Amino acid sequence: xxxxxxxxxxxxxxxxxxxxxxxxxxxxxxxxxxxxxxxxxxxxxxxxxxxxxxxxxxxxxxxxxxxxxxxxxxxxxxxxxxxxxxxxxxxxxxxxxxxxxxxxxxxxxxxxxxxxxxxxxxxxxxxxxxxxxxxxxxxxxxxxxxxxxxxxxxxxxxxxxxxxxxxxxxxxxxxxxxxxxxxxxxxxxxxxxxxxxxxxxxxxxxxxxxxxxxxxxxxxxxxxxxxxxxxxxxxxxxxxxxxxxxxxxxxxxxxxxxxxxxxxxxxxxxxxxxxxxxxxxxxxxxxxxxxxxxxxxxxxxxxxxxxxxxxxxxxxxxxxxxxxxxxxxxxxxxxxxxxxxxxxxxxxxxxxxxxxxxxxxxxxxxxxxxxxxxxxxxxxxxxxxxxxxxxxxxxxxxxxxxxxxxxxxxxxxxxxxxxxxxxxxxxxxxxxxxxxxxxxxxxxxxxxxxxxxxxxxxxxxxxxxxxxxxxxxxxxxxxxxxxxxxxxxxxxxxxxxxxxxxxxxxxxxxxxxxxxxxxxxxxxxxxxxxxxxxxxxxxxxxxxxxxxxxxxxxxxxxxxxxxxxxxxxxxxxxxxxxxxxxxxxxxxxxxxxxxxxxxxxxxxxxxxxxxxxxxxxxxxxxxxxxxxxxxxxxxxxxxxxxxxxxxxxxxxxxxxxxxxxxxxxxxxxxxxxxxxxxxxxxxxxxxxxxxxxxxxxx
Length: 698
What we know:
alpha+beta, TIM Barrel, 4 domains, ten-stranded antiparallel sheet, nine-stranded antiparallel sheet, 41 strands, 17% helix
């Protein structure tokens, strides 16, 4: 199994202990970092380049239903040694806390000579070597007033959702309470909140900020809880980065009762490995966070630089049919394929979604038909969902199991989900994967995967204690059955783990109206960095429908910023649910802009221009930019806020206007020349329209 725990980072001690038994009051300096353990309080202070990051910091954990913290725990001993692991080489600082009758607590800080971040985790063990158990370990906890940003109202904190179910959004909220909305988006003032796995706490003007979160995801659901400050003082008054969260947002609440996180047992029990960094630019910090994850647990290899195709759900939904799907393959072949640089690598996926209304013989013939048209075929599946609801029903595959052998239970009752570790579930996975492979599918959209990560009464798999462990087990098993030749795209799924898939839909369902575009772009605004752990952020099916030209352009532009272009309109010309001429003409029109397709194929790494200015009903960032070898690309979305005239200072994006070749630079949808004056890009922004500027370098 590809399970990457922090204990499996292959720590290589490259020198003997260099400071074992140091005084508890002694500070340790290495690289940019200083760690000091106060001899009286047994609390830790962290500084970076002499600047306070966190002080009065302690670790916490649950043992025998009681929460303990290392401050005042008993004795504390500090040691240090050189180390090398997957992330790099540096100094490992270990603080061992001991107290009679309680677990030993070992907190490790991994320091690097040239990094703006450190790594830390906490391990529990019993002095006699016996078993220890816990369902909550918090390496970073402080209730002190910590101020590492300018003291102003532009300070924000990021909330990251656990999954992408139920049209959940990311949030960029004021760190402090206030009395006006002058510098914030309209809406509530959030001061206390929770972010799953990671957060950034940053200043919107200077961009400096802290990034903190988990970088291993095989055992725990982790989160960051934080409380800001009153009025505009701009400090943190509480910070808790921990493993062992359950919440309504993790889908672990049933009938108003929250299921506790699973209890992990062993001779040692460790938290997730956490990253804590103070960065000059919080966006660089989030990208670095993603890159560190991918070093510890590499993302799934993928040779493709962009993804192109069509999916049935956007326009056909439950009305998909065999003849109609064949006609879509023909329509793509005759009107879009090999036209205007659409899918320049020659790989186009024609995807069947839920309710394809086909049997397996028809699916295999559909795959063969796509192959004859020079295309690959895609399918859809929900491996951990129980849509039957009858435990006596036989599982698919005539394997001798019933659904009752596979269901996950809470308080003894089935919850409509399958235990990924159950032999019955694995037998079902074997049967479906064999069907997909025998049929010849090369793209598989997996949906409702969050059902496989619930905290349950128990799991069939030996040594599986938590929903995250069960989910990792199941996804690893599924990926091994499919092999590496099938593109796996996660639909509704937890953010982490990621290494079993090639892509993940960055938001929930999104169709063609501006509301859906702005919703999807909210997820990209604050989750753009996820392409460091997945090969692609999937913007969902690109539906034109009966929306305006401006909305159609905006929806297609989401493919530019993600490098992922799956069309979604009903393009069928025969069968039981024929598409409209309007939709088909729009697909032909908006899929054949050569300048746009060239940018999609480049799969550039766009980032938001800022994080504190929010627009539209979904509180999204409106401005993004990326650099190519020969140009800069600037993308602006108008999320239905009326016509605007924009004067954009390119220097705020790190672009020197003097290096731009104005004679070649264009707006890619219209083909119009740019207006560049005094270092400013000047343009109009009509309601609902996206602008895509390619600024060629001299």
